[in-house]
Amino acid sequence: MAGLRTVGAILLTLGALALLGTDVTLLVAGAMAAMVSTFAIQEKQVRGQAITLALGLPVALAAMSLGALLHHSVLAGDLFFLALIFGAVYSRRFGDRGTALGLIGFQVYFISLFVQAGVAALPELWLTLTIAMACSAVVRFTVVPETPQRTLGRLRAAFRARLAQLVETHLTLLDAEPGQLDDVLDDLRRHTSRLHETALMIQGRLEDGTRDAATAGLLQRRTADAEIAAERLGMLLLNARSAERTDTLTLHLPDAPVSATASVLQSGGDVHLQLRRDLEALRLLVARRAPDDRGTALAHLRNRLLAYRDEDKLPPASPAVQDAFRGIGETARGVLGLRLALDGPQDESDDSPATTRSREEFDAEEIAIVGAGEEVAQEAPEDERTGLQRPTTRAAFQVAVGSALAIVGGEFLSSQRWYWAVLTCWVVFLNTASTGEILVKGYRRLLGTVLGVVAGVALAGLVGQHTWTAFALVLLCVFGMFFTAPLSYALMSFFTTAMLGLLYTVLSTYSLSVLVLRIEETALGAACGIIAAMLVLPVHTDSRTDEQLATVLVRLREIVTAAVEQLSGGPAVDLLSQARDLDTALDELRASTGPLTHPITPLRVRRQTARYLVALLETCAYHARSLAATAELVPYSRTVAADPRLAHAGRRIARNLDLIAARVQDEPVTGEVEAGASIAAMLEASDSPALRSGSVTFRVLRHLQRLDEYVVGIARPLEVPVAGPASPKG
Length: 730
Prior knowledge:
The protein is 72% helix and 1% strand. It has 730 residues and is an all-alpha fold. The protein has a two-stranded parallel sheet with strand order 1-2.
């Protein structure tokens, strides 16, 4: 959508300027200004977007004017450019609006350098900027409107599509031969990860995309229920078809070995056919949308699947296979809850007792959510860091120093196009937080630039002097930039450089030496950015990673403790929000370890350790989400009851996490991580009744046992003392 919006703004700007008979230079300036004014604004609410766009026009006019006035004053121009760069980066501390205005100011000044703007051309350039921003506004608010509600609607549709893909993969997993298992597991990992990413994107849009806090809370809970149930169903199916219980680590660590044992389910047998039939019914329930999902046949399928939530409705089979049927029932419940949240009330005339009970649970949850939504929301705590410790202030000084080096070095390479080095230095600092991230981003930009130069040579020879053909290819490159930006920074840089080669062709300044200079300036800018990051208020990758790791461990401890407390009969709390906080922290940790796990890193041992720790934490997060989802049922379900014995089971995990977090934060550690007897054995040793397979307590203990094992596994590479012989499986 961002690509379409940007291409539309550029196309409308080019059309308007062409009708006015402007020259090619103004066409290029207008196209670049339209692109900048479109992608710079990231606010979610329409009113905020309009205000920022309106404020962006005077900022753009001022930047263009100063660029033209200082065009022939080298020293003054360079000093102003550095001040502008510092202010543009520092303005990020003021949120999306400050970031957008700073970006517009910097990029428009860069445009003035690119088109060699002079004072005599200022009136035409002012008109061009005004037209470009007006066209951007028209496309943004009328042609391709972006509202939180529309974005959330697309994400909800995407979540359904991802859920249907995952259920399709479950079917493939059920039928896969041993030799096909590795490929099927790759698909299972990928589709599970994509479903999780979509759920996180929905979480990020709930506050602005829904009418009130109660609606947001309801949709959050229903999405989380469906996601967790579907993820768990994949593991249960894998266990059902394998002779050995499969570790959840295989869902998260790509190189983790999986025993390709023959399926214990006889292909074509009664149980196998029943599982396949029920999975196909589940896929149908997911894929059908209102109002096409009404009918007695679909109601019958839904009732049959929901009946598996009752122990007496399970078919006779091994415990692992019965777990798979339970998983289908829980996933069907998640799909029903999602439909109720998205599509509203449905026909209840054909409901079975199991379906009626599920609806009653949803009604009870909704009442609780509405009551919670009436409470006053607490604002997120502000960043307590001040002065040079504030990330925006630190980054502003780093970029300013790096840009100064880039200006000096760029002038030696070319007195006319030195600004490419400055642009690269600026870009490598965007969305990075450590020296390692800047290094990797600089490498990717250089790689994309080299490949883009090759493409630019080919495209320049293809278009020749055909201006409008060149602009058509520019639009394709712009769309490619935005489409590939979330996937690969190197690809985005490739399309950017190819686009610049076309623009040079349009301006009749293209030559092979110009594109080679582009590579040299890019390498110089990346090097200057890396040097500044290493010497000016550096944030080392190790310290950044340790900070994020400590946050993940704290979040994990909080949600496990709260979930166990609620499962033991404690007060109800918002566990799903805590689960999403854990997921967000884990995503940030994964990003911060990117430099350590990148293929170019020479530190192989550290790379394996980082990948191992992230994989263990992803597995712990899966079990924590499952605990939270089960605990959320306690206040409303007739079949899920609190068990006071569980309070003792979570204490060891919480204590172990506290010890590991203290070690990561360089705090004194007194004591050892406790291992040894399993959590289930600890409960059975307290003269408690034997645990029944399939009971909620049994399921919860299985998640706690896995958490306990993997927390011990996390302690070992971090050199936290461990008492006992236990270690994680896999």
